[in-house]
Every structure is written in structure tokens, then in C-alpha cells.
Design brief:
Structural class: mainly alpha
Radius of gyration: 21 Å
Shape: globular
Number of strands: 0
Low-confidence stretches: 1-9
Distance between the termini: 54 Å
Bound molecules: tryptophan
Length: 454
């Protein structure tokens, strides 16, 4: 009982913020809108929400369980909990997946730095929507500029990883998250008020189930895993730093709700704006970099100072949201090399940084000068995104569900969710049922459906 009264509020909030910092990122503001656009809008969002609550939250609690109970980063956690058999490969697969994501994710994170630069030097002022398209194309086709920003962004991540994240990131998240939230809310209102915005709102809120093809399911599931940072042990690595009193179910729910809210709000900014200026919603990865500067210019055309300040603020916050995510991705590989091979943290971090830089360079050039080289019809950037988000993450998530549902000692599973009996956790039977049956079968069904086997 004594323990219970001495609940350490700081660390519980810290746990939520660190996990939310990992989850909220480019996945919400950059990837969610263009995936929604590519897959036809509102019906995609409904299926996405289903994936978040049905697969996402239970698998998040399962990852928390693995990480906190093992007290090790994901690469070692599965091995510690099940030394025999092949379960340890879930951990290794996760490390590889995270490393690949870090590479191409940093490319887009680098773009945010370019856009901060453009905003600060007031290059958005007075441009028309077609000029924003040209501006983005010129930038991404340039063989050097994106690479410079990629390099800067990975170095920033490296620097924080080496210095130790805990305090800096936790403390700044407490300020940044609310600011980001208020700013997105404000922008959503501005965007909705643009002329012709109704079409965008309709696209976002009126489901057309005629457009639901198998790839819509795969896309929504991939997006759910990507946005929640699930399926590769990112959150299980963070959970290895959770305190004993952190409530796993409550933390997962908080992260899920925050992440979903930010994504839907981002949609409310992008689509009204895109339809208003006549940009196709399926413009792909460039979508937010073309529509957003336009929103600022149009919404605040009478008050250029506001347009200037909001543009800077937005891209700074976007870069910081991306940074808290790249840190979490980098941490998984760094902690793995450090624990497994006994490299110093510094050396491990340098290896991860160098490796992700190479992947990032190839991914970045694949969008410009190397765009003619294709893998299965996709450039290297898109192929990496497809492979990780739509295949590797769901497989990792499914294996984690199977592991916690069927293999891990049931008493451990219960103890972790109830904090050794001090919480009721009434959702427990449902949680177990989902891990054992619903999540594995559901994920497998989506794969089979995509392959056309139904
Ligand atoms: N979830 C983050 C975002 O939405 C990206 C991210 C961080 C991630 N860690 C991850 C994605 C682990 C998949 C797996 O931007």
C-alpha cells in the first residue's frame, strides 16, 4: 500500500510523453494524409480507426509487457523471455525494420529543415499554388540539397542519442506537444475556412465504400502500425525504461488517442487546403510540402506577419515531432548493438548513424535523379516504405501478439497489466482474446486478401 501512495506522477507522465513523442511524427502529418488520399478518403480512415483500436492498442500493451518485464531493449528482450526457440528473431527483425525506417524517414525529416529555412528567409510570401509545386520539385530533384538536410537531421538525432535523451526530450515534450496541438487546431480552422474547402471535408468525412479494395485494408493496417510506432519493438524498448507504477493499459490508451487525434486534425488541414487550391489528394509524399505553405499564404493573405510566423512555427514543430520519432528509432538499433556486442554507446550510435545515412542517401536520390531505377515497380524510397510499413511491421506485430498471447507465462502477462495485482484492468480477458485470436487472424486475413486469396 505504501508503494501505491507514493505514485511517482512525474515518471508516469514521462512514460506517456516519451511514447507519444515516438508515435506522433511525420507518420501523422505527412504519411497519414497522403495514404488517405491514395486510398480514397473517409472509408480508409474508418478502417484505419478499426486497426488502431482492434490491433494497435492490444499490441502496444503487449510490447510494453515484453519490454518492461524483460528490462532490455527489443533485440534482447524476446531472447531474455524465451531463450529457446525462434522467438528471439522477433527482436532481431524489429531492429532491422527500425533501422530501415530510420533511413528513409530521415529524408523527409530533412525536408522539414529545408522548409524551416525557406520559411525563415520568407520565400513563401506571394507565391501561387503552382509555384509551390515547382518549388518542391526543384528542391527534391536537386541531387545535393536534400542530402545536406538529411545529413544535418541524422546528426541532430545522433547528438541527442549520444547525450542521453531522457530529461531533454521528456521536458521539451511537455511544452512542445501542447504547442503543436494548438497550432494544428488553429490551422485546421484556417484551412476549413478557405474557399472551396467543402470538397475536402466531404472527401475526409463521407465514406465511399465502393472504393474499398484489398489494398485499402493493407494500407490502413500499415498506417496504424507506422503511426503508433508498433511492430518493431520501439515502444517495448521505451517500456524497458518505464517505472513499476506505470499503468500499461492507460498509457497505451493515451498514446493511441493523442496519435489518432493529431492524424485526423492533420487530415482536416491538408484536404480542405488541397481541394481549395486544386491539388489532387493523391499527390503522394509531396502533399503536405505543397499544400501547407499555401494554406498559410491564403489564410493570412491580409496579415503577412501571421503567415510568416505560422509557417516558421509549423515547420519547426514538425521537425521536432520528427526528431522525437527518429530518436526512438535510432535508440532501438543503438541499444541493441550496445547490449548485444558490448560496443560503447557512442560507437554503437556512430554505426547506426553511418548505416542510416547510406540508406537515406539512396532513398533520397531515388526520388530525384535515380527515380528510374525501380523495384517491383516502385522507386527505392517507396519500396522501402512499402516493405517496412505494410509487411515487416504487421508481421512483427502479429508475432508479438502470438508471443504474449500464447507463449509468455500467463501470470507474467497478468502481473504486468495489473501492476502485480494493484490495478483491476477489467479489459484483461478481451485483451488476451484479441492477442490470441483476433489480431493474428485479422492481420493474416488482410495479407491473404491483398494476395487475392479470398
Ligand atoms: N510513429 C512515428 C510517426 O508517426 C514514426 C516511428 C517512430 C515509427 N518509431 C517507429 C514507425 C517505429 C514504425 C515503427 O512518425
Amino acid at each position: 500500500m505504501y508503494q501505491k501512495e507514493r505514485v511517482n506522477f512525474g515518471s508516469k507522465l514521462g512514460a506517456i510523453l516519451a511514447a507519444a513523442g515516438s508515435a506522433v511524427g511525420l507518420g501523422n502529418i505527412w504519411r497519414f494524409p497522403y495514404e488517405t488520399g491514395n486510398h480514397g478518403g473517409a472509408a480508409f480512415i474508418l478502417i484505419y480507426l478499426g486497426c488502431v483500436f482492434l490491433f494497435g492498442l492490444p499490441i502496444m500493451i503487449a510490447e510494453f509487457t515484453v519490454g518492461r518485464h524483460a528490462g532490455a531493449s527489443t533485440g534482447e528482450a524476446f531472447k531474455a523471455l524465451a531463450p529457446k526457440g525462434c522467438w528471439k528473431y522477433i527482436g532481431y527483425l524489429g531492429v532491422l525494420t527500425g533501422f530501415l525506417i530510420l533511413g528513409y524517414y530521415s529524408v523527409v525529416a530533412g525536408w522539414t529543415l529545408e522548409y524551416i529555412f525557406q520559411a525563415v528567409t520568407n520565400r513563401f510570401a506571394g507565391r501561387s499554388s503552382s509555384e509551390f509545386i515547382t518549388m518542391f520539385q526543384d528542391f527534391s530533384l536537386n541531387p545535393f540539397r536534400p542530402l545536406v538536410w538529411l545529413f544535418v537531421f541524422i546528426l541532430l538525432t545522433h547528438f541527442i542519442i549520444v547525450k542521453g535523451v531522457q530529461k531533454g526530450i521528456e521536458r521539451s515534450s511537455k511544452v512542445l506537444m501542447p504547442v503543436l496541438f494548438i497550432l494544428i487546431l488553429l490551422l485546421a480552422v484556417c484551412s476549413i475556412m478557405l474557399p472551396g474547402a467543402e470538397k475536402g471535408i466531404e472527401f475526409l468525412l463521407k465514406p465511399d465504400f465502393g472504393k474499398v479494395t484489398p489494398s485499402v485494408f493493407l494500407g490502413a493496417m500499415g498506417q496504424a502500425f507506422f503511426s503508433l510506432s508498433l511492430g518493431m519493438g520501439c515502444l517495448s524498448t521505451y517500456a524497458s525504461y518505464f517505472g513499476k507504477d506505470t499503468r500499461l493499459g492507460h498509457t497505451a490508451m493515451s498514446v493511441g488517442v493523442i496519435d489518432t487525434f493529431v492524424a485526423v486534425l492533420a487530415g482536416l488541414i491538408i484536404f480542405p487546403a488541397a481541394f481549395s487550391v486544386g491539388i489532387q489528394p493523391d499527390a503522394g509524399p509531396s502533399l503536405i510540402f505543397i499544400t501547407l505553405p499555401n494554406v498559410f499564404q491564403q489564410a493570412f493573405s491580409g496579415v503577412p506577419v501571421l503567415a510568416y510566423v505560422c509557417s516558421i512555427l509549423f515547420y519547426v514543430l514538425l521537425a521536432l515531432a520528427a526528431l522525437t520519432s527518429t530518436i526512438s528509432l535510432h535508440e532501438v538499433s543503438t541499444a541493441f548493438l550496445h547490449e548485444k556486442f558490448n560496443f560503447s554507446r557512442g560507437k554503437a550510435a556512430r554505426m547506426v548513424t553511418a548505416g542510416s545515412l547510406i540508406i537515406g542517401i539512396v532513398a533520397s536520390l531515388a526520388l530525384g535523379v535515380w527515380s528510374d531505377y525501380k523495384i517491383a515497380g516502385m522507386n527505392f524510397f517507396d519500396a522501402l516504405d512499402f516493405l517496412t510499413a505494410k509487411i515487416m511491421l504487421p508481421i512483427g506485430g502479429m508475432m508479438t501478439a502470438l508471443f504474449v498471447g500464447w507463449v509468455l507465462n500467463r501470470q507474467i502477462v497478468r502481473d504486468e497489466v495489473t501492476n502485480y495485482g494493484s490495478l483491476k484492468a477489467g479489459y484483461y480477458p478481451v485483451y488476451i482474446f484479441i492477442l490470441k485470436y483476433i489480431a493474428p487472424i485479422g492481420i493474416a486475413a488482410i495479407f491473404l486478401n491483398e494476395l487475392g486469396l479470398f
